[in-house]
Amino acid sequence: MYKPEENKIIKDARNCSYKEKYRPQFHFAPAKNWMNDPNGLVYYDGEYHLFYQYTVNSTTPDFPHMHWGHAVSKDLIHWDELPPAIAPDEDGAIFSGSAVADLNNTSGFFHQEGSGLVAIYTNEGNQVQSGKPQVQSLAYSRDRGRTWIKFEGNPVLFPASETADFRDPKVFWHEESSRWVMALAARDRVEFYTSEDLKAWSFASEFGSTLPFVHRGVFECPDIFQVAVDNDPNNKKWVLALSVGDQNGENMNDPQPPAGGSGMMYFIGHFDGHSFMPDKTIASIHDIQWIDYGSDFYAAVTWNGIPNEDGRVIWIGWMNNWRYATVLPSLEWRGNMSLPREIQLKKYPEGLRLIQQPVTEINKLRNPVTTLKDLVVKLGDNPLSGATALKAEIIGEFEIGTATEFGFKVRKSSNQETVIGYDVLNEAMFLDRTNAGSVDFHSDFVAKHTAPLKPEHKRIQLTIYVDGSNIELFGNDGSAVITDLIFPDHESQGLELYAVGGSVKVISLQINSMNGVWERGSGAI
Ligand code: FRU
Predict the structure, then answer these.
(1) Is 354 in the same domain as 375?
(2) Are residues 260 and 162 part of one domain?
(3) Is residue 456 domain-resident?
(4) Which domain range does residue 425 map to?
(5) CA trace torsion 296, 221, 357, 371 (10° rounding)
(6) Cα 309 to ligand 1 centre (Å)
(7) Are residues 343 and 288 in the same domain?
(8) Of 22, 394, 454, 467, which is least packed with CB atoms within 10 Å of its CB?
(9) Which mutation among 36, 320, 338 tests ligand 1's pocket best, with the greatest number of atoms within 8 A of CB?
(10) Smallest Cα–Cα separation from 261: which of 238, 294, 231, 285?
(11) Per residue in 33-54, pLDDT tens?
(12) pTM exceeding the 0.90 threshold for the entire prediction
């Protein structure tokens, strides 16, 4: 039976009903206040740590006083929100960064314990060297992340020249070279540094200065990790994932994330512990691969320390977009995380592509509600007219027929709906949130997002997660993804399965209601 850490769990979390309007029921959001990027993702001693950019006492970001919030989980699904882990001080605010398990005490911080956690983060607003407000610092924990001690030698890394953008260190242990590697966002490029002890860092190389475009949004939250191709452990590739900040609108030829605002791109190649070499020449912005075609998946980074026996590459993203992040209509908190997702690489005729799927741990939240098989749907039919979905998983496989468009309407009422479907002629999956509910808090929120998706053997598979104020849509087992926030009324729970322009065959359809993760003790660990 699941037992939250009652004595340590943050008071706000103990007092929270988790039933407020728009509250996600199986996605992590703090009980109160503002949250952005995931930070310090590390698995250590049986626990997954999730730190995040956190503003205490406010639902809007207070950048000069940014903290690392903290939650822990044993299964990536049920989270205990602990007190904020790292607070700002005279070195500056605590911006994004990573954490590692220093298993061999390379840092020298853990003489008694033998191992412990080290956080590597950006101090913003640092005044040690003028013109260099962003520097990297360390904190360490000898008690499984519950308390943190700042390193007296902070900051440990300054930019070589004056710049306002030098941040978001992602540090990991590079097995082949037996060294720590840091990927750091430095305005229009990623810089790599190496270290033996996490304290002294040497510049290794940069990636980005020769890209054939200048992106208006700066790079943020870089990550680099190795992934097996088609699940073959003997064929691994490196993926460099970059977040690109919201743009200021000068040069319209610059690459924009598909849904606008802030978004994520990736490159596949080789990393030798020193430099990253992309497999493909990037000749123009059309060679850029985007990670998500919705507008609300940002700053995703992978967990460090996943045991070799597990071997998965897992990340989580902030479900939001800087374009409108600060005006979302939730009242008690602002911002939530995506589901943790497993990353794979798959070979397609057009090349290697990054695949994302929610971790299988999510399956234990399922309660089967409806199953359909071999059903033909045409204009005017709604085989789901009696069904509802408030927190649900919908898995449908379709065989392309004469319909030009088919799909689902979710969170539906007489005047609200979110349309999720497939456009046969344009070979694209889409999510239309134009009438999803509250949309008028920002003009760019009203949108239909599309993602290229080719049928495989004439079939399209859609997996949809519907929660209090968000949708995650995975096409063909995660080869295309649309992640979008929506803000429907609680009463909008209706479902529709529809087809237009002809008929479509539903090969199979499964609808599962999902247990809420805040309902302590239900379907838990
Ligand atoms: C990305 C980001 C990071 C920065 C943090 C500040 O969303 O802008 O670059 O460290 O948020 O909260």
Answers:
(1) no
(2) yes
(3) yes
(4) 366-514
(5) -20
(6) 33
(7) yes
(8) 454
(9) 36
(10) 294
(11) 999 999 999 999 999 999 999 9
(12) yes
